[in-house]
Each structure stands twice: as C-alpha cells, then as structure tokens.
Amino acid sequence: MKVAVIGSTHAGVFAAKQIKADHPDAEVHVYEKNQTVSFLSCGIALWIGDNVSSTDKMFYESPASMEEQGITMHMETLVEDADLNAKKLAIKDLATGQQSEETFDKIVITTGSRAIKPRIPGIDSDKVYDSKTWNNAKDLKEVTEKVKRVIVIGAGYIGAELAEQLSVNDKEVTLIDGLDRVLANNTAPEFSAVFQQAYEDNGVKLALGQMVSAFEDTPDGIRVKTDKGTYEADIAILGIGFLPNTALFRDQVEMLPNGAIKTNKFMETSVKGVFAAGDSATVFYNPTQKDDYIPLATNAVRQGILVGKNIEKPTVAYQGTQATSAVELYEMAYAATGLTKQAAARKGVEAGTVTITQDYRPDFMLTTTPVQAALTWEKGTRRIVGAAFLSRHDISQAANVVSLAIENGMTIDQLSMTDFFFQPNFGQPVNYVSAVAMAAVAEADKE
C-alpha cells in the first residue's frame, strides 16, 4: 500500500505515524512545503512572552524522527495539483524546482488551515504580521523584542493571548475586534466581562465593536483605521482566525461552503480511498449532532490517528468533538467545552444556562479561591451541551469532565448525581461541577 500524506502539522504527523504503526509494510510519503513538522503554534504568544523553555520543544517530531519511523519525508515540497479520483499528485521540489508526478493507492489530505487575511487596503505592509506558522513566530519574536507599541487585531483566543503576553511585558497594546466584547465567540458575557476588566487593569486599550478598514504605513510604524477610530503603533498583528487550506481540492470532494472537507465517521471523504483530517476537514460536533468546522490541535490529533486506523478498511469510528479548550490570561484560568447559550442560539439549539460562584474548597482551609461555573443544556431533552469554568485555581480538568458527559449524552440530572470525591485539600462536599449541575436541574425544573 502506497500512501501520500499532504501536510505535516498535527493531523498529518499522527496519520503518517499511525499508518506506519498499523501497517509496517506500507510505503508512506509525507509532502510538506515547509522545513519543519509538528509545530505547536499555540505556543507563539507564550514564546513572545518569554514563557517557553526551548524552541526545540515546540516541535514533538522532526523530519529526521519521522524518517526513523520508516516514513519518507519530502520537505520543502509543494503539491501543485491533485487528481483525487486517479490518486495522482503533481509535485514540485521547491529547493531544486524539479517537478514530477506520483500515483498512490491512498491519499490523506492534512493541508491544515490558513490565516484569515481580508482584502483591506494596506494589509500587505511589512509592519502587519501574521501569527500562524513557525516563520511567523520567528518574525514576531524578533520584532516584538524591539518595539514598544503593538496593535492586535482579533480578540479570540489567539489575539487575546498575544495582547496579554505583550501587555505584561511592558508593551503599549491596543486590542481591536469587530464584536462588542473580548472572547465573544468563546465565552458568555459574564466571563468576558472579567477578562475585559483585566485588560483595562493592565493598560490594554480595548477598541471593540470596530471593523478595520485600512492600514497605512507611517514614519514611525503603522496606522490602523476602523469604522470608529484611528490607532497608531509600531506594528500590527493579525489574529482574526483561520479557514481550511483546501483550494487545491475544490470540486473534487464534498465540502462545507468555507472549504472544510466533509468526511464520514471513518475519516474518508466522498472519494473512496481519500481521507481528510485536522484543520482541512469537518468535525462531528456532539453538542449540535452536526458537521462543523472547529480548527483545534486536539481534533487534528485524534482525526489523524483515526485515518491511520481506517486507512485500509473501516475499523474505528470517530466519536466526535466537544471543542474543549482553555486559556490562561492574567493568571486566571478559563476552560470550556461545547456551547454557550449565545453560541447555541447561533447554531439553532434552544438552550438554558445557569452560572454559579463557589469557593473550590472549604473556607476552613487556610486558602481557597472562587470558581465561576456555567452549565448549558438543551431545553426539552435536558441534554448537556456546554460548560465553562473560570478561576485563579486550576479548573481545567472540570471542562474535560463535562466534555466526557457531553460525548456520552448525559443530562443535567445525571451529572448532578455523579459521584465526585470530597477531601478538604481538593474540594467541597458538593464539588463545583456537581453544584452547577444541581443549579441547572433546579432552573430547568421551572420550565
């Protein structure tokens, strides 16, 4: 079996490794246009903020380590064209310019995503930076050590982390977003309000509910114009979001309107023998029970593994995702899974929600700290569809607990009666996960 894997960030790396592990005799070829594999781009903001021990550790594999596992790596190699039905690829070696064609038994599309870059006048200025790739990261690390004023555009996770890390490292930061609050697509209003206050307390200028209309170079840096104001800095950084990098395969496989490739539960596309995973593909989103586009490394890793397990025949079905995620800003941890009430409304799910605040362990302990917890459920079925937790205490595993509950179709009633231990060092007699579920039951019973 001869397999081509196109792209080698998370999905491509894990697909290639799993194919080789399950099929040692398979001939696996990975095509990557860059010089590196497996870059953990989620660490860009942390590196800029001097919170990374070693840049080498921002990669969990290398081309050499992949070769050692019996995988043939074609680095700095671009797939210029693809005939998916014929399983034929047109390939160009970017170092030598040499072009060739290869035919395969199976093709795996793991081309990832590309940063959204709207057609705005001046956006191609060399003072406007992206925050996606390893090369972007190196450029940002070098320039942010020299500048004093930075404009960050986009207040989702990427922009939020960049703004926070720059501000705590004595940069003058302006954070611009088209929506009216920070992390608007990730959090409910009561949570984003906490972070907005933290940004203001740390000197970040918030320019929310504003759309960027133009960039202009100035003698001292860059000027960013919006529909409501003008802002100046030494540089601007884009953190707007991502789209699937799948133009090469358009009209050959079924896609969502944004270009995300649809797959079945075994990660196979509408073309037999062609698989897709990671940021180039859809996910099955358990809270809505529908296909969606949610580019997360965790989704990419699991989907890549499934490609390997199913490359020869359907074997292990995809369990779906809850899009569980977390962020830490100004020493406050936020972890969430599934939908907020606002996101549920956008997705057509009629949902209820409740939020509580509870100290994470008993007040007789010498120290404790509050946890803000929210739980969201589908009205009628009482099925859990989301949760969020915010605290200076590490509440990250609470989101994983509720993620498991969503995946298994649990109701708020079941979660409220789930067995969680009590020990004063770690928690209350009624754990905050149980407590928010109990509050949800009480609220739902009023309906």
Overall description:
The chain has three domains: 2-41 and 56-113 and 243-310, FAD/NAD(P)-binding domain (3-Layer(bba) Sandwich); 128-238, FAD/NAD(P)-binding domain (3-Layer(bba) Sandwich); 325-442, FAD/NAD-linked reductase, C-terminal dimerisation domain (Enolase-like, domain 1, 2-Layer Sandwich). The chain is 25% helix and 29% strand. It contains eleven helices and 25 strands. It is globular and about 70 Å long. Helix 1 runs parallel beside helix 7 (297-310). Strand 24 (370-378) and strand 25 (384-391) form a beta hairpin. The termini are far apart. It has 447 residues and is α/β, with parallel strands linked by helices. A five-stranded parallel β-sheet has the order 3-2-1-7-18. It has helices at 10-22, 44-48, 63-68, 134-144, 157-168, 189-201, 297-310, 341-346, 396-407, 412-416, 432-444, and strands at residues 2-6, 27-32, 72-75, 77-83, 88-93, 99-103, 106-109, 113-115, 128-129, 149-153, 172-177, 205-208, 212-218, 221-226, 230-233, 235-238, 242-244, 274-276, 283-285, 290-292, 325-329, 332-338, 351-359, 370-378, 384-391. The longest helix is centred in the C-terminal third of the chain and has 14 residues, at 297-310. Residues 331-427 form the Pyridine nucleotide-disulphide oxidoreductase dimerisation domain. Keywords: FAD, Flavoprotein, Oxidation, Oxidoreductase, Redox-active center. This is NAD(FAD)-dependent dehydrogenase. Residues 1-304 form the FAD/NAD(P)-binding domain. One of its GO terms (molecular function) is oxidoreductase activity.
